[in-house]
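Fold it.
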Amino acid sequence: MRRAMNRRLRLLPLLAALALPPLHAATAQDAGPQNAPAQSEQSRSAPKPAERSGGGFDAQRSETKHQLPLPSGPLAYTAVAEFLPLREGPRDEAAARVFTVSYTLDGGAPSGESRGRRPVAFVFNGGPGASSAYLHLGALGPKVVGFNDDGSLARPPAPLLDNPDSWLAFTDLVFIDPVGTGYSRGIPRDGGAREGGARREEDPGKRFWSIDADSRAMAEIVRLWLTRNGRWESPKFLVGESYGGFRIAKMANRLIGDTGIAVNGLIMVSPVVDFATIRGGGGLLVPALRLPSYAASAAANGLASGSPEQAAEAAERYALGGFLTGLAGLDYRRPGAAQGFFAEVARTIGLPEELVTRFRGEIPTDVFARELLRGKGRVVSVYDGTFTAADPDPSAARLPFDPFLRGTVPTYTTAFAAYAHEWLGVRTEVPFDLLSEQVNRDWEWPRSGQPSAVDDLQSALTLQPALRVLIAHGRTDLITPYMASRWVASRLELPDGQADRVAVTVYEGGHMMYTRAPERAKLAADARALIEAALR
């Protein structure tokens, strides 16, 4: 999911399989309100002539019809799974095949607007290196993976359920997998011809694995989808989780400058907007912004007083007050003079005073996750401080992997592969890369400084005066703490009376707070409210 993705997460090796077998044309329609896999209607699956240009690019388009049963009545919708071409070079050759899944409501919207004017949301996950399956089958799509009531992993294989909180009820949806993730792949130049007698080893998708190239490519996919589907008049929204939040802030600014497309709203789920607020480079601000999420996690595990919400609120007041001044005033030559400060920090975040003293009050995230429950032989996830697991290697200096993130890999991979085959008519032997370690490892970051999308977000807000932004966080997310986004939001320049254009909301749970059904419903309600407000 994410730049915050644990680099030590070992996935199956990326298999080079660029000559994809065709997605068989879906020839089915759902059998009534039970929404069973379709079986009879011929889909419009023949590629358009333009899709065959540029070296015989094959869109492998599959279209199916479905119904989503809801208490208010069934929603009839069309699902389209297809590859879109990213083109480059003087001959405008296809450089990558980008896998997308679109959901559009049939027969207009319940409120009566025409299909061409119905809102459409383009959805991304993060990583870099994550496919969109987390938000697709986790929160927004018509189907969701079932988790336990507390948001923890269900026994495999996890059930796939109708989603009563699908965003399809208030916007059409387009899920996009960046190059190298999901089924999306780069295409070798000149068909992968040999150079100097040896085949190149570099992945052909690598040309898209940088901040600038990625935002440019994904903006082009948005433009291409709007053009092919005749949706230029539709209100447009971007949704991104984790690094995807960073991506869509970049895209919002780029879409205005490169294509003349202004989006109506941004919905960021557990985002990082400015990397300096969550990792080295932010100075004393970084440990201060982490403190409330640490405190909430400690309270959830019975190691700090009050509820997680109460503990977080108390830590918020302390973080940018006594905690920040305490860190700034430390004299390392006289550590004994700060014992009262270290004791207060220890009480706030539930760690032993000796450990807090050793780290001078600045506890790294991985150390917190490892040490909070060491006495019980357990660790907490950096993605959700309420999720605990047995320590896989108590003698190791660091955790070899994050138990919650690693557990989601087979959960979502299995669920999406089955869903794509049975419900969307996708036929391919290409491995589905939920989280691509190769993309994450080979991503080109700036050589100096910490990446930031704050200026891009500010520019988009300035150039599009009606733009609204929702930033959603889980309270016990230790990877992208909610206080970091609050700090960024408080420094965006907005005209008087327009502060409500940027909202930061906090939910129970962690990075994927939507694995808890009540929080998924709240997130959907807040997203609906943003879209409705943006259209008034």
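The chain is about 30% helix and 15% strand.
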